[in-house]
Amino acid sequence: MTRPLFSEDVIAAAKSRYAELKARGQDGGGFAARVATTASLPETLPADKIRLTDTIPGGWYWHGIVRCGEALRIVNRDGTHGASLLLWNATEPSERLNPADTIKVQWTARIGKGRVFLSDMGRAIASVLDDTSGGSDFVAGGSTPFSNARKYGDATLFNARDHFLKAAAKYGLGKRDVGPCVTLFAPIVTDDDGSLVWDETADLIGARIDLRAEMNVIAAVANCPHPLSPSDAYGPEPITVTVWRHGSPEPDDLARTGTEEALRTFDNTDQLFEQEAGGSAQ
Amino acid sequence: MTVRSTRSAQTADRRHLVPATAGWSGSIRRGETIRIIDSHGQQAIDTLFYAAHDTAERYSAQDTLQAQGSAYIGAGSVLLSNDGSPMLTVVADTVGRHDTSAGACSVESNTVRFGHETRHLHACRENFVVEAARWGMTKRDIVSNINFFMNVPIEPDGNLAIVDGLSEPGNYVELRAEMDVICLISNCPQINNPCNGFNPTPIEVLIWDAD
Question: What is the ipTM for the molecules in this complex?
């Protein structure tokens, strides 16, 4: 064994600190109780808060700018098996949704109501105001020409990866910018032996998810079924996308304050806006 | 499942010692074999692969896991690119399970995970940016990597944490290149969690020419 870089005292302190962080992160911190006592968003949004609404046919895609403080609602009326999502910082698109950091930082692969979508820069790119779907997939991606060939025997069916390439192109972005994604309405669970399985108890019919943009974002939504869907037939159903004005969060905002990691994520995010405002924010 | 290699380390054609906390990159041609050795045990080795002919084609953790239907990398795993092409195959592995869902540590995510007082510590994303630059790539090109020798069980309830590594000194993974690839490695400098046993150590990379 080579000589440790750090003294035994430093290592012992790091070990105990990690154990404490893990215990609080895996719910010694009381996050589930905060979620349970936070009211759900109404099924019908006030008309004066809605900027746009659009129905995406099954197999098609949507893209747009969602400004900081606006929220993206996606409604899955018919229970389609997944809609894949990418987010880029609209001002500096090299910053983008990072699925790995999102699950690692929050100690869970189940990213639902009250959780944060992290960028690769340790900042919040979006937060989950509400989610009635029972699960998004951050581990197994979305559909591709080759996943459609494998599952349906037809590489020409519309797929998430190619939709992302087309959406990215419309903002001057390319293949290098289309990285790992999240698939909403895709309740993928890792079972005890490590297999990735679809949780068939999740009720996707009528499910909705509200994501608040925490910076100005380019959003791309590909309405294509998840390749691990239990359905053998390619049968995407329409989903509805609504961009609505959420406004300033309350001081006890669940996503901003639900965990200590969320607090530190928003410290970083708020610092970015203070920098951009030349230090004149507040 | 563990699978031992039939190759003797002495027969390797190229040998690279990667110091603790450092980055490394190199090219591996189709048919060549790369062995990554956790020389001292419990050392996460963050690894990315790019197609040498066009680096916009690169390792895709999500497509790889989706195709194999399971959440970890091990012997028999075929590492797929974002175009669905096999890049490398894991032909030997003396540990049994490696993470590819939890990504690489960064200065920025360290502040979120461990507090802003850790912001001056070295991190894998820093190594990746420097190694990527050698091949004309930037931060845009850094995607979800493989964490060889890092143990991150994902439980059925979704709980996920980096826990004590499973690797003993001298454990290794060996991969056969199915196309010409560029390999980026960050010998993980993290000292705030168990991925390196709180003690980053040197590793070794061996490469054999095609048979």
Answer: 0.97
The answer to whether A171 contacts chain B (CB < 8 Å) is: no
Interface of A with B in 211-270 (CB under 8 A): 227-228, 261, 264-265, 267-268
* Model pLDDT for residues A176-192, shown as the tens digit of each residue: 999 999 999 999 999 99
CB neighbourhood size of A203 (10 A): 12
Q: How far is residue A231 from each of residues A74, A225, B204, measured CA to CA in Å?
A: 21, 9, 45
Mind telling me how many Å the CA of A264 is from chain B's nearest CA? 5
Task: Compute the nearest-CA separation of A119 from chain B (Å).
Answer: 9
In chain A, how long is the greatest CA-to-CA distance?
A: 66
In one letter, which amino acid is B211? D
Interface-testing mutation among B109, B167, B196, with chain A (most A C-beta atoms within 10 A):
B109
Residues B119-172 have pLDDT tens digits of 999 999 999 999 999 999 999 999 999 999 999 999 999 999 999 999 999 999
Whether the CB of A101 is below 8 Å from some CB of chain B: the reply is: yes
Of chain B, the percentage scoring pLDDT greater than 90 comes to 99
